[in-house]
Amino acid sequence: MVNPNIAYQCTALQCERGLADKIAMRWVDGRGGAADFTFSYLDRQSNRFANVLSSLGIGRGEVVFTFLPKCPEQFFAFLGSLKRECITGALFSNFGNEALVDRLGDSKAVIVITTRAHFGKIKPVLSDLPTIRYALLVDADDDQTEYILSYRRLMAAASDDFEIPHTLPETPSVIHYTSGSTGKPKGALHCHLSILHQSFTGAEVLGLKEDDIYWCTADQGWVTGVSYGIICPWSRGVTQIHFGGDFKPQKWLDLLEQERITVWYTAPTALRMLMREDDSLYTSRNLPALRTIYSVGEPLNPEVIAWGRRTLKRDIYDTWWQTETGGIMVANRPGLEIRPGSMGKPVEGITVGILDRDGSEVPAGGKGSLCVRTGWASMFITYLNNESAYLSKFRNGWYFTGDMASRDADGYIWFMGRDDDVINTSGHLISPFEIESCLLELPEIYESGVIGAPDELLYEKVVAFVHLREGIALDAALELKIRGFLTRRLSSTAIPQEIIAVPSVPKNKSGKIMRRYLKAQYLGLDAGDLSTLDTD
């Protein structure tokens, strides 16, 4: 049996297949420079990192995190950790120190790979992270202390030969943290078996072929950036473009044209931002190589599909999946008629149910819980340190996704919303509880409530309601302080688009914030049953 180790399949196996000298990654930086990395180079560098971990006494089952801006070292460290059979995760580079503590602390991470600047966010909270043994700085030539070490020095001293153990399919591999509406982020843990579904959907949905030039725009801090920005394409021997610069419509179009990208996987928010440009930016372009465009993260607006057809002369295919599913579950794809607004049909081998509260199938056209029959290869195996939350997601052989949907008579799935309060802003799931808790640390705020509201660009925007302490007024200075505080503690994605002062935050009789009531008030809708509202 071929070794199911994810990193082996993405590197050494491709070399064994005769692709050693093929470009695995073209790295394009934000200043116009580019560098090519072959599968052989990717294999050797990830071997070196596996040996670095060995030299530091870090091995199977221990947790390794990267906390990096966009850079090639992200991929060497990530794959090298998997070769060492470590549990491996990537953190968004814009995380603040509270978000870092939640994830590094809960996972009991032993090492973090970062930069000198990013380590500045970790250093103040190291006392809250007792399991961290080392920090490796990718931009330091020399060790800073006995535990803050130079990645460059260690890599230069390491051998590029490493014998990857024959990994059992159920061996834990990748961890991603996902937000809930009532608690801290939960670590969704996957295993090496996941590569089967990720690689399969690369062919069955994305249509990837070995001669493709593929660009997934997702950051590796997001599950898409791992499942479909590392694992899927390299397991199929496909050349990837990775871009280290910021979002700029002109530059993105340059990349599509100059790099002759054939398959492009991006997000609805990015597409809506591109839509703001004049159509002439796109109609004047020559993109003969571009075969297909895919979208993920939030429902794809019918207007975006129409824009793609008008300006890029291409269909844009929506895909649906979650951190917990590890790979694409439902999708539009070539050969399947697009029904704008629908996320398509289940992928081959995936059984989807639309179920009511009793677990019975809802008739065609009816709204219910979007569920997936258990047993797919990329299914998460637990929430780390939270088995009860994991078990609560399953019933009678079904995984309950937390999304609401309907299915039409032809089997197309239509997203209807969340069944909880989690906010989907630009494809990032944000916990209102996290933001509320953080806001309460500000001395000016007595109570807070946070909701998501519809937004043309972000899909949902964050709206914060704050009950200020006596004598405090909500002015521009306080709003700036609130936004800066949330950025430092959580991330820029948690910043409210609106902050509204209220005389009190509505709660039910057990003290739980009634976000449903806040949202109805904000949108001017009927709040429904208010019998549990505490009016005292």
Q: What brief labels describe this structure?
A:
single chain, 536 residues, alpha/beta, Rossmann fold, GMP Synthetase, Chain A, domain 3, five-stranded parallel sheet, 17 helices, 27 strands
Number of domains: 2
The poorly predicted ranges are none
Range of helix content: 25-40%
Amino- and carboxy-terminal Cα gap:
67 Å
CATH-wise, what's the superfamily of the largest domain? ANL, N-terminal domain
Name of the CATH class of the largest domain: Alpha Beta
Give the averaged pLDDT, no decimals: 93
Architecture (CATH level 2) name of the largest domain: 3-Layer(aba) Sandwich
Cross-sheet strand order for the largest sheet: 2-1-11-10-12-13-14-15-16
Question: Would you report the number of β strands?
Answer: 27
Class computed from helices, strands and strand pairing: alpha/beta
Instruction: Identify the overall geometry.
Output: globular
Q: How large is the share of residues in beta strands?
A: 15-25%
Largest sheet: 9 strands, mixed
| Number of helical stretches of at least 4 residues | 17
CATH topology of the largest domain: Rossmann fold
Question: What is the C-alpha radius of gyration, as a whole number of Å?
Answer: 23 Å
